[in-house]
């Protein structure tokens, strides 16, 4: 069998490890892999690269994706889906492994419904895919954010400042939540919750007068009261481009105004997507890649690999892309235990 592998959406740690594993496991079945370059754009334009043992050897150390990626949505391009299907035929691909988040896998689901033999592999630093307990990319990204938070605490303590760390995560607060809990942050702001500004300010004042510094971790996706959100800055999947909102900066101004304390902000942005993957992500991504190759071998298309407990299982792409996994009240109440 000839299997096309592609990576779409934002890159994250673990993609190379998943590609490597899918290629290596496919070899056990006598299957051949072909790399599709730059996500769905590669299939629209027919851009591919060879993907054998030689290409995947030595990539276990590296984040990013050797295949390149894009946020191209074939259903938003003229005749995009048609071109994808034509190229699948032309390239002789008998199956497709699509590695991505909700957007890439949403496209995979539609294509499957239209007859394409596709298997999904969930990846995203946002950890917002339901149907899987964790996505690879998340652990490495929070580990990086955690390092930043610890560094901020050192300098914040010296200067008696309120330090604000803005992390990515889009519309889900998992990255902010885990970074905040693990770094001992004094407050966390999540996109899922309306910010309780007065309560936060009162608390930050109290914390600062006790220990001379405070740390706030905010997600890039929060909306402050009275903030106007423009509909203009959206990507091809209709997601707001959040980096333009500068929530950390806005928050720092607000904290300074309301507390009279000095505040500083750090936006770590894409630092969270590169660098060597954590142990957890290397293992999870490797398990996902192997399972994807096995699903192809078994002819189980329209499925996505998922982690449930400690088991790697398959779930339908339909179920996997039905809704986002967001931070619930139980997690928020848990985090609040440490706002002392
Ligand atoms: O979905 C992953 C993610 O890193 C989000 O957390 C973030 O909002 C977005 O991608 C940034 O996208 P880009 O790399 O296109 O700026």
From TrEMBL:
Keyword DNA repair: no
Pathway, per record: Carbohydrate degradation; glycolysis; D-glyceraldehyde 3-phosphate and glycerone phosphate from D-glucose: step 3/4
Site (Important for catalytic activity): 123
Keyword Magnesium: yes
Required cofactor names: Mg(2+)
Site (Important for catalytic activity and substrate specificity): 103
Domain Phosphofructokinase: 2-296
Record-listed E.C. numbers: 2.7.1.90
Binding positions for substrate per the UniProt entry: 124-126, 161, 168-170, 220, 264, 270-273
Pfam families: PFK
Catalytic function, reaction form: beta-D-fructose 6-phosphate + diphosphate = beta-D-fructose 1,6-bisphosphate + phosphate + H(+)
Residues the record marks as active site: 126
Annotated keywords: Cytoplasm, Glycolysis, Kinase, Magnesium, Metal-binding, Transferase
Predominant cellular place of this UniProt entry's protein: cytoplasm
GO molecular function, one term: AMP binding
One biological process term in Gene Ontology: canonical glycolysis
Binding-site list for diphosphate: 10
GO annotations of cellular component type: 6-phosphofructokinase complex
Activation/inhibition comment: Non-allosteric.
Binding site for Mg(2+): 102
The family this protein is said to belong to: Belongs to the phosphofructokinase type A (PFKA) family. Mixed-substrate PFK group III subfamily.
Physiological role: Catalyzes the phosphorylation of D-fructose 6-phosphate, the first committing step of glycolysis. Uses inorganic phosphate (PPi) as phosphoryl donor instead of ATP like common ATP-dependent phosphofructokinases (ATP-PFKs), which renders the reaction reversible, and can thus function both in glycolysis and gluconeogenesis. Consistently, PPi-PFK can replace the enzymes of both the forward (ATP-PFK) and reverse (fructose-bisphosphatase (FBPase)) reactions.
Record note on quaternary structure: Homodimer or homotetramer.
Matching PANTHER family: ATP-DEPENDENT 6-PHOSPHOFRUCTOKINASE 3 (PTHR13697:SF52), PHOSPHOFRUCTOKINASE (PTHR13697)
Protein name according to UniProt: Pyrophosphate--fructose 6-phosphate 1-phosphotransferase
